[in-house]
Design brief:
The protein has one domain. Helix content is about 85%, strand content about 0%. The chain has helices at about 1-25, 30-65. The protein starts with a helix and ends with a helix.
């Protein structure tokens, strides 16, 4: 039990130290970093939407081909 408490305490202390170092050593300010993250999110969202539209069109063509009467 004592080992588990020591482990949890160490994990919490390590998390706090890591978070503090990340804030101190970040290459950009908070506003810049949030802006970069938003731009990346928006770009990824656009790419995902384009991939979804492309795949949907492919599937609709395949479905139409399967529904077409065979000759």
């Amino acid at each position: 039990m004592r080992g588990l408490v020591n482990f949890i305490g160490g994990a919490i202390a390590g998390s706090l130290v890591g978070a503090a170092l990340a804030l101190l050593l970040a290459p950009a300010s908070g506003d810049e970093l949030r802006s970069q993250i938003k731009e990346r999110k928006d770009r990824a969202q656009q790419e995902i939407e384009l991939a979804m539209e492309t795949r949907r069109a492919e599937l609709e063509r395949e479905l139409a081909a399967l529904r077409a009467p065979r000759q």
